[in-house]
Specification:
The protein is an alpha/beta fold. The protein has five domains: 269 residues, Rossmann fold (3-Layer(aba) Sandwich); 60 residues; 132 residues, Immunoglobulins (Immunoglobulin-like), CATH 2.60.40.10; 116 residues, Immunoglobulin-like (Sandwich), CATH 2.60.40.10; 199 residues, Class I glutamine amidotransferase (GATase) domain (Rossmann fold, 3-Layer(aba) Sandwich), CATH 3.40.50. Helix content is 24%, strand content 28%. The radius of gyration is 30 Å and the shape is globular.
């Protein structure tokens, strides 16, 4: 009995790690001849490599493609974070939402390079200058435990790190990833380390740990005393029609939020690898590793069956290999339990499916479904080959009896009591099923966002989810297909499908949502004085005949009127906006306002958030319905503000709350519009990296300043500037940054108007900042600029480029690397007060 229990637990753990593999096959069933052949040849290779880095886009995509598609190994990238602390070049998602976006971008990248994707619970809390800080904030043991879990579950033969452990990675997260990988390499094989995992997985010792060494500019190969192994990732694969570096370029285009696309390099691309721990290599990354079926007892029978399948396979008639593939499946099922058997069995099923041209789908009539309600699902099975396939059944949870669009078929011979349907060639078998969802069905939410979390690590609700890229599918259909005397099971997620007139066919997973969601009109509400404000709550029904009562729950000292609103919504999709009056306390105060909603019982309300970009499936999130309230004395010196968006931020919304009229400038506005009507013009973060029009519009902006205007330029990077002249006087963008958001800030010119008018700025205004003080400060500037602040991370020399001011003609020019794009939307009172001062209007203009 104990052996069976251990085998079941190990199976569950292995299945959780196979979720990414299964998702690739289910979400991308189309497969061309080259992909089919690669997948078929991959079945004969029983070896694996795990690549470890710190962030999305740290991976060596060419190496992953070489391993997965060239060497036909099982390859995976373990990113310790989801990139939630970075910036966003394509939208306004920040923090947790950005982490969800980058997770999906990573999965799209893996679909292109053929590898799998895993994560730890570590939060990307922003740039870190030391691994010591990183490990302290993450919690060393928690993240180490996750890496050990992935190693024990994935069971790599070789582990490769993206960064060295000696600190040359340039980022504390980078170095920490290498330090943790080295410790996990040993800990995964030690039964005394994280023994609680051993009820689900077994210890595992990888053969070797390598560092993917890099060459410095001008070097022919990496310097160092250790032996190095060379792999040419620029090698051309005739079957794929591309070099692995070209595949990498396509893969990296999926990192759109980071702007991480690279040119498709052609020609030799040598990569070097150094031994960090484990057995030395001689001539290959996997020296000493048997990557054939001989590594498993009786595996030779599987290898022989696969050889027959490869001989029978034809690109023009792939179904010819199916009989031998079924023999292979039978041989696998005779083997003793082993994680490799499970992995290869899943791969084999995913090969048989395209060889038969088998199309399976389960499509919901709506994008969302509500616990306690019904949803209609249409299942479709099409056999696009001459292989005799029979549909035994389609299993859906919570399903009533299906109805079929085809006449009821007679049971096939030998079907027993099952209603077996012969899948005639290229004829769709369609059935419509109504699901009655139980009231206790949990709503859809990324598992790492289900609970609250600290600055360093997310909470993992179930240990078997550790490492998984996303939550398990909410609802899936299981198609049972009979081929000869064997039954094949395919689990297909239920999706909604629609046609976008520009992007074409798109799909998204069916989301389970509450009966009612409540979206507030802003994430932060700012009260610059004692005046009351209106709070608009949009109540959205996801089921017909919905009656709900909504009330706000403000922090102590705040008052709402009325106490609650009752709403009646006739149809799913109906919305009603209810308006509360919120009165702040007289004194400075901040806190969270939450929302309670009552249908059959009162409970915390959830909001509905959709992350939708063309290169990823839309993501539905259901975070708590809440709003940050800030009561702070803020005077605003400007009323008409032009804002030139860069890579995207939410500062304009806060400026509007302060009573400003904010105009978002288009490219045409910058070249043609009358700028003199604005009290101030603000360029968003990285505008000079992302808005090409500034190359020709910059002189207009500086002329606007010279005539008496105020121009506030927020941070840019030194790479890819669209023009050299950022300010009226010489100024060079650098890379200095202050990552500790708690360090003291010295006011160098405390009586300067930017620090006194109209808001008096003191040390208290630098309290409670989030993630960082600032980044990419200028490294050199003309003496006509005045440096207003001095600050430094612990142990470093102070820097003074965070806030620069210059008079130019009759106007004011400000360049700042302070992270206002984080602080202002987060409702940090002091940052809002300081930002307001930067907008002060200069002398009257002509």
């Amino acid at each position: 009995m104990r052996a069976n229990l251990h085998r079941t637990a190990a199976t569950l753990a292995s299945l959780s790690m196979l979720a990414a593999v299964a998702a690739l096959g289910q979400q991308c069933p189309r497969c061309d001849a080259a992909e089919r052949r690669v997948a078929l040849e991959k079945l004969a290779v029983v070896g694996s490599v795990l690549y470890i880095g710190a962030h999305p886009d740290d991976e060596n995509s060419a190496l992953l493609a070489y391993l997965a598609k060239g060497r036909k190994l099982r390859a995976a990238y373990l990113s310790l974070t989801r990139g939630d602390g970075g910036q966003n070049l394509i939208g306004t998602e920040q923090g947790e939402l950005l982490g969800v976006l980058r997770t999906e971008e990573m999965l799209q990248a893996r679909r292109l390079d053929g590898a799998e994707q895993y994560f730890t619970r570590a939060v990307d809390f922003g740039f870190s200058k030391t691994p010591e800080e990183t490990l302290r904030i993450w919690g060393c043991d928690a993240v180490l435990s996750d890496i050990v879990w992935v190693i024990r579950s994935f069971r790599p033969d070789v582990i490769i790190t993206r960064f060295p452990a000696n600190g040359d990675g340039g980022h504390g997260h980078h170095t920490a990833s290498a330090i943790l990988a080295a410790e996990a390499f040993t800990a995964a094989a030690d039964s005394q380390r994280f023994p609680e995992q051993l009820r689900l997985v077994k210890t595992w010792q990888a053969r070797r740990l390598l560092w993917n060494a890099w060459r410095r500019p001008g070097e022919e190969r990496p310097q160092g005393g250790k032996p190095q192994l060379l792999v040419d990732l620029g090698a051309y694969d005739a079957l794929l029609g591309e070099a692995f570096t070209e595949i990498a370029a396509t893969s990296r285009t999926m990192h759109k939020s980071q702007g991480a696309a690279i040119p498709p390099r052609r020609g030799s691309a040598p990569n070097y690898f150094e031994l960090v721990a484990g057995e030395p290599f001689v001539a290959d990354l996997l020296d000493g590793v048997d990557v054939t079926w001989n590594r498993l007892p009786d595996g030779a029978r599987v290898a022989a069956a696969l050889k027959r399948a490869l001989s029978a396979y034809s690109d023009e008639a792939p179904a010819s290999a199916v009989p031998a593939l079924l023999d292979t499946l039978a041989e696998m099922d005779r083997l003793a339990h082993d994680p490799w058997v499970m992995v290869k069995r899943a791969e084999l099923l995913d090969v048989i499916r395209p060889c038969c041209g088998l199309w399976l789908e389960a499509v919901a009539s709506t994008p969302t479904a509500v616990p306690g309600e019904t949803v209609e699902i249409t299942t479709v099975a099409i056999n696009r080959s001459n292989m005799p396939l029979r549909l035994t059944r389609v299993e859906l949870p919570f399903a009533a009896a299906p109805r079929s669009d085809q006449p009821s078929p007679a049971p096939a011979a030998g079907a027993g009591s099952e209603a077996v349907t012969l899948l005639a060639e290229n004829i769709a078998q369609t059935r419509v099923v109504t699901l009655s969802l139980p009231r206790e069905l949990p709503v859809s939410q990324p598992y790492w966002l289900e609970g609250s979390h600290g600055n360093g690590a997310y909470a993992i609700p179930k240990p078997e989810l550790t490492g998984a890229p996303h939550s398990p599918v909410s609802i899936a259909a299981t198609f049972v297909i009979r081929v000869r005397d064997q039954q094949l099971e395919y689990r297909v997620p239920v999706v909604q499908r629609w046609i976008d007139p520009v992007e074409g066919e798109r799909t998204r997973e069916l989301a389970i949502v509450p009966r009612v969601t409540v979206n507030l009109d802003a994430p932060v509400l700012l009260f610059p004085d004692r005046s009351a404000k209106l709070v608009h709550a949009s109540v959205l029904a996801h089921a017909a005949q919905t009656q709900a009562s909504v009330r706000l729950q403000p922090p102590p000292g705040w008052r709402t009127e009325p106490e609650r609103f009752a709403v009646v919504l006739a149809k799913s999709g109906d919305t009603k906006v209810v308006t509360f009056t919120l009165t702040p306390p007289a004194e400075a105060s901040s806190g969270e306002l939450s929302v309670a909603v009552q249908t059959d019982r009162e409970e915390p309300a959830r909001s509905l958030v959709t992350i939708d970009h063309p290169h990823i499936p839309p993501q539905t999130l259901l975070p708590p319905s809440a709003m940050r309230l800030v009561r702070a004395d803020v005077k605003i010196p400007a009323r008409t503000i032009a804002y030139m968006m860069g890579s995207g931020d939410e500062i304009p919304a806060i400026l509007r709350q302060l009573g400003c009229e904010v105009t978002l400038l288009s490219d045409e506005d910058l070249t043609d519009a009358d700028l003199t009507r604005f009290d101030a013009i603000v360029t968003g973060v990285r505008a000079y990296n992302t808005r090409a029009v500034l190359a020709q519009a910059q002189e207009r902006l500086l002329a606007y300043v010279e005539r008496g205007g105020t121009l506030v330029v927020q941070y840019n990077t030194d790479r890819g500037l669209v023009c050299d002249r950022l300010g009226p006087f010489p100024l060079t963008v650098g890379r200095d940054r202050t990552t500790d958001e708690t360090v003291p800030v010295e006011l160098l010119l405390p009586s300067h108007p930017l620090l006194t008018t109209p808001n008096k700025i003191t040390a208290a205004d630098f309290a409670n900042w989030v993630q960082e003080r600032g980044l990419n400060y200028p490294s050199r500037w003309d003496p006509r600029y005045q440096a207003l602040l001095s600050l430094a991370d612990p142990g470093e020399k102070p820097v003074q480029g965070a806030l620069l001011y210059a008079r130019f003609g009759r106007g004011s020019y400000v360049y700042t690397g302070l992270a206002f794009f984080r602080q202002v939307p987060a409702g940090v009172p002091g940052a809002i007060r300081l930002f307001a001062n930067l907008l002060a209007r200069s002398e009257p203009r002509d």
